[in-house]
Design brief:
This protein has eleven helices and 19 strands. It is of the alpha+beta class. The chain has three domains: 139 residues, Rossmann fold; 63 residues, Dna Ligase, domain 1 (2-Layer Sandwich); 102 residues, D-amino Acid Aminotransferase, Chain A, domain 1. Helix 1 packs across helix 2 and helix 1 packs across helix 10. Its EC number is 6.3.2.3. Keywords: ATP-binding, Glutathione biosynthesis, Ligase, Magnesium, Manganese, Metal-binding, Nucleotide-binding. It comes from Novipirellula artificiosorum.
Length: 347
């Protein structure tokens, strides 16, 4: 299998990243793996999508870190490849990372992939679905049973009114990630709410959400693949992120601590409720961030943390993701590439 991964920038990848783990697993299963940044893509005069891509010189690697070091090192294989001729292409770039500094890069991966898809390459997740999910507004398309009460606006007075109604809220940017510009607003904070709103709204719209008391214990990241919780040998690909000290953010990059997750009926019910929409939109590998009996976010772009799940569950989930992609490529071969991409994404 010839598989490609589109990332924000090859040189900023790290061995601990889920994309590196997936590339490492694919190489070790004997596949040809190419990695390219969004700025490496091109539409050529012959109508083909090509890219300046990198691969590694060895057929096997002991760790994702050694694989990534070779991918970024002097021995890396450089080639301008035809993206259309790959068997599978994973879109693993995070648009929110480019939203402010490189706005031109935020949506181009899905746009180029949509054209490459015409020639039969399996694109994961479906680029049309990803286009719909390009901001956190996508979250509001899921049933209200699994969502916290939410206001999205740039109007200060509307946010203040919502804060007074709820008593305790969280505000964050509509576009953003990693726990940046996230504020917990209590009743006593409302006199200073204008400054918080200014800090968030400088990047666009503000999301104001009811505060979920269960957030005191952090949140859970559960991976969903092909529309169902990723489960191998009875072990779920999931882990908890617990708050560190007085920081309300449980995101690992914002100082949260990792722990093992317990998957109960409530978690599985949430996954089942969101499954039809994920399947409809062709979302292959998704991260559900769950607090209590509610979803906080649905991560369809480059969900991370498979390594953390592996750490606690002692299962190489990355290899099973690659196995699932192998099956999709086989389906396309057996059926003459007659499936729509959106359907093959979750088969």
């Amino acid at each position: 299998m010839r598989i490609g991964f589109i990332v924000n920038d090859v040189k900023t990848e790290e061995g601990k990243f889920t994309t590196s783990r997936l590339g490492h697993a694919a190489i070790n299963r004997g596949h040809e793996v190419w990695v390219m940044g969004v700025g490496d893509l091109a539409y050529d005069p012959d109508g083909m999508i090509r890219a300046r891509a990198k691969s590694v010189p060895k057929p096997k690697y002991g760790t994702p870190e050694s694989y990534t070091a070779d991918l970024q090192g002097k021995n890396a294989v450089h080639r301008r490849i035809a993206v259309d001729e790959l068997d599978a292409l994973m879109l693993r770039n995070l648009p929110s990372d480019d939203y402010l500094k490189r706005p031109w890069a935020a949506t181009v991966a899905a746009e180029f992939a949509r054209i490459a898809m015409r020639n039969g390459v399996v694109v994961l997740s479906d680029p049309n679905g990803l286009a719909i999910a390009s901001s956190k507004m996508y979250f509001q398309l899921f049933p209200e049973e699994v969502r916290p009460k939410t206001l999205i606006t740039r109007d200060r007075e509307e946010i203040k009114h919502f804060a007074n109604q709820e008593g305790k809220i969280v505000i964050k940017p509509l576009h953003g990630s990693g726990g940046a510009s996230v504020f917990l607003v209590r009743q006593e904070d409302i006199p200073n709410l204008n400054q918080m709103i200014d800090a968030v709204s400088r990047d666009g719209f503000v999301i104001a959400q009811e505060y979920l008391p269960a957030a005191e214990q952090g949140d859970m990241r559960l991976f969903v693949m092909n529309g169902r919780p990723l489960r191998v040998k009875g072990r779920y690909a999931a882990f908890r992120r617990e708050r560190s000290g007085g920081d309300m953010r449980s995101n690992i990059h914002a100082g949260g601590m990792k722990a093992a997750a317990e998957i109960d009926h409530t978690v599985l019910q949430i996954a089942e409720i969101v499954r039809p929409k994920l399947v409809q939109d062709g979302m292959f590998l998704v991260g559900l961030d769950i607090v209590g009996d509610k979803l906080m976010e649905i991560n369809v772009f480059s969900p991370g943390g498979l390594g953390s799940a592996q750490q606690f569950e002692k299962v190489n989930f990355s290899a099973h993701v690659i196995e699932a992609i192998e099956r999709k490529v086989q389906y396309m071969h057996f059926y003459g590439r007659n499936f729509d991409n959106v359907d093959i994404c979750t088969l």
